[in-house]
Specification:
Strand content: 5-15%
Number of strands: 5
Helix content: 55-70%
Strand order of the largest sheet: 1-2-5
Bound molecules: fe (ii) ion
Structural class: mainly alpha
Radius of gyration: 19 Å
Distance between the termini: 39 Å
Mean pLDDT: 90
Length: 328
């Protein structure tokens, strides 16, 4: 079915029906130099459309590469957002194989350049078509299901407490929380539970639509330096501080959203912890370097957090995490 939809959509975009395959190995974080190579391949292939089938990193790489394909020479300027991205000239279809990032519906691409990780924001990154089929997520093992599912839960919660929240994003995010709270563990424990897989895929999409509007906040601001310094996968880095910020950012409004989603602070925290333990995720840091504190506080997403965080409060947060957690 997915292949048929691809073919139909590509036909609509290009006026012809054909597949030109390309296979680039993208790790957890797409590198600028790899995106430049992909952009060159896009130009050389004279393709009408790029189809990104993969996790958030693959989709982000496709978003950035297809946008810079019109002007590869200035890739670094686009990376540092010193120049507005050119309008994308070819079609882009994004088909996620994980249930988490929401990248298929956002205008964000997270790209690395060596040790530097940047969250680049541009309307050029919107895919023409987002194709969400839970069949694509069947290959995910427990660890990846947990990491991507906790990323989706972070998106939903951060959309709720971001200072940019709206009544409509609350609806999307609240439904995402309800679906994740009641299905993520089932998807984790039984990879063949297709009902649970379908619901987590849908939840990840809803969470993506919510945070595409609100942007994320402190949990994501901290996750980027955590990934840079400790090489933690994105969702694992988000999950590390999620329970703390669920308490810090708790409000009457958030309590109401959780209640309507059939959840509350305590049960959600227990659930997050069970998922972390089941999947063997890191719940503690070996040390708390100054650069982690500095880079977290300097991250622009920190401004979206409803409660102001300073160096002292952030160190206390990590100390509390380390008291209870363990390193995996
Ligand atoms: Fe995320």
């Amino acid at each position: 079915l997915a292949a048929k939809i691809f073919e139909r959509e590509i036909s609509a975009l290009s006026g012809e029906s054909f597949f030109a395959g390309a296979d680039y190995r993208i790790g957890f974080d797409p590198e600028l130099k790899d995106c430049v190579e992909i952009a060159k391949a896009i130009v050389n292939s004279q393709a009408d459309c790029i189809v990104a089938v993969g996790g958030g990193s693959v989709i982000d790489a496709a978003k950035f590469s297809s946008a810079i394909a019109g002007d590869i020479g200035d890739a670094e300027l686009y990376f540092y957002q010193k120049k507005p991205l050119p309008k994308r000239k070819i079609g882009l279809i994004a088909a996620p194989t994980t249930a988490g990032t929401g990248s298929e519906v956002t205008r964000v691409a997270v790209i690395n350049n060596g040790e530097e990780k940047r969250t680049i924001n541009d309307t050029a990154f919107y895919a023409d078509i987002a194709l969400i089929d839970p069949v694509f997520t069947r290959g995910m093992g427990a660890r990846l299901t947990a990491i991507s599912g906790l990323d989706a839960l972070s998106h939903a919660l951060e959309a709720c407490w971001s200072i940019n929240n709206t009544p409509l994003t609350d609806l999307y995010a609240g439904e995402a929380i309800r679906l994740l709270a009641s299905n993520l563990e089932a998807a984790l424990k039984d990879p063949n539970d297709f009902e649970a897989r379908s619901k987590t895929s849908y939840a990840a999409l809803l969470a993506g639509l919510a945070f595409a509007v609100t942007k994320t906040a402190a949990v994501h601001a901290i996750s980027y330096p955590l990934s840079e310094i400790f090489h933690l996968p994105h969702g694992e880095a988000c999950a590390l501080t999620l329970k703390e910020f669920l308490s810090i950012n708790m409000s009457v409004r958030l309590r109401g959203i959780l209640e309507r989603a059939g959840a509350d602070e305590a049960s959600l925290k227990e659930r997050i912890e069970r998922i972390q333990l089941f999947a063997g995720l890191t719940t503690s840091l070996p040390h708390i370097p100054e650069k982690l504190i500095d880079r977290s506080l300097a991250h622009p997403l920190m401004k979206n957090n409803p409660v102001a965080i300073d160096a002292n409060s952030l160190k206390n947060i990590f100390n509390r995490i380390n008291e209870n957690g363990k390193i995996n």
